[in-house]
Amino acid sequence: MTRLLRLFGVASLLALGACSLTPAYETPALKSAPPAQFKAMEGWKTATPADHLDRGDWWTLLGDPQLNALAERVKVDNQTIAAAEAAYRQARALVRQQRAGLFPTIDLSGSATKSGGGGTKTTTSAGGATSAGDTQRYQVGIGASWEPDVWGRIRAGVSGAKASAEASEADLAAARLSAQGELATSYLGLRRADAEITMVQATVEGYQRALQITTNRYNAAIAPKSDVLQAQAQLANAQSTLEGLVRDRTAFENAIAVLQGEPASGFRLAADTSWKPVVPEIPVGVPSALLERRPDVAAAERRVAAANTDIGVARAAFFPTFNLSADGRSTASRLGDLFATSANTWSLGLTAAQTLFDAGARRAQVAQSRAAYDEAAANYRQTALQAFEDVENQLTAARTLERQYALQLTASQAADQTEQMLLNQYKAGQVAYTDVVTAQASALSARRTLVTTAVSRQTTAVALVQALGGGWR
Fold first, then answer.
1. What is the pLDDT of residue 422?
2. CA quadruple 223, 228, 231, 233: dihedral positive or negative?
3. Interatomic CA distance for residues 344 and 218, integer angstroms
4. CA distances from 83 to 78, 89, 220, 273, 300 (A)
5. Which residues pair with 323 in a beta bridge?
6. What is the pLDDT of residues 135-151, one digit of tens each?
7. Which pTM value belongs to this model?
8. CA separation for the pair 135, 131 (Å, rounded)
9. Are 408 and 449 in contact (CB under 8 A)?
């Protein structure tokens, strides 16, 4: 009993004296302090979001019920998100596995053997026959072992696994944000194609009427043959443009199918002729908030923390390892005597191991861990810098596109009026058909550009949502 108390006393001292060899962790700072505000615009209000907060259904800002329904399906059925979610579950399981190393392991064993030789047979009380030389032995044993975490190696492994799991959780959030952003962009591209198809179809009908007018004038010897040829060429070009738009729409539709985890061949999305682009109003947060809400920035920072714990694990290899063990067994020739006091034996043990020479392998491992930390820190800083660049670019684009849209709206309205005026003048024989063709081409181009710019404003808002880490609510 005295020896037992001494061994547990040693274990207690080892546990109390446990220390950590992991360097104190601080989030790597950027080479220069973040600016107080983005340079693309003045007068922005401050936001204080954080990576763990729910960003909400940011796509509802686009005001499209069909997009809302598709986004809900992406949350559930997108296979990239499913893979990221499975990776996150693996990381969480690894945390539990690492934490189990802090506790002892307990084994239970049992056996029953029968051996015999020659001799006379006797009859047992149960009626069975057995030889006189037969022997039976029953044994049951229980053992336990525990490695005290004296140098913090196991705790560092747990901390590293936690940081990796948090990085995996951020990866999952990034996968969701990416899939939702791709869905919104593809959906807006499809609706832009729908709007242009409707527009070009109306233009084709107008060109067909213009061709008929020109043909009639040619048949009446009022217009030359060249007018008819120009009208035919213009109609064919518009019809070709229409075919290209149908192809683009199909590509967007197929992309949406894949994002929802469906085969492209069986997915259909009906055209919506009443669709109107809705551009959300964009408030802005300061750069310091950006670092807290972007999933890729959060994941990069957590990987720095995980790399920091690896240094502690590598440094712990320079110190000895200890292991406490306990074993109890009971052996008897009869099952009824198996748990009698006289059949019991026990043992306690303490072992220690220390590597004396490894030709510099441990030092190399520590150097490798430090270099991996420096790499992770540099990746984190680069990710943060890229985040600032993304926001600046999208804010500048949003501001520029807003001004462009106003100018292009004026240009489109003027082009429409010019087209109608020249067509009326041609009917009255006042201008050549070349002027009409030029005016019609300009009007169609202006209308298509206006639609494209409107959708570009929406897709820029989506890109800004992603740059900010999931919206601004």
1. 92
2. negative
3. 119
4. 9, 10, 70, 36, 19
5. 351
6. 788 888 888 888 887 77
7. 0.78
8. 9
9. yes
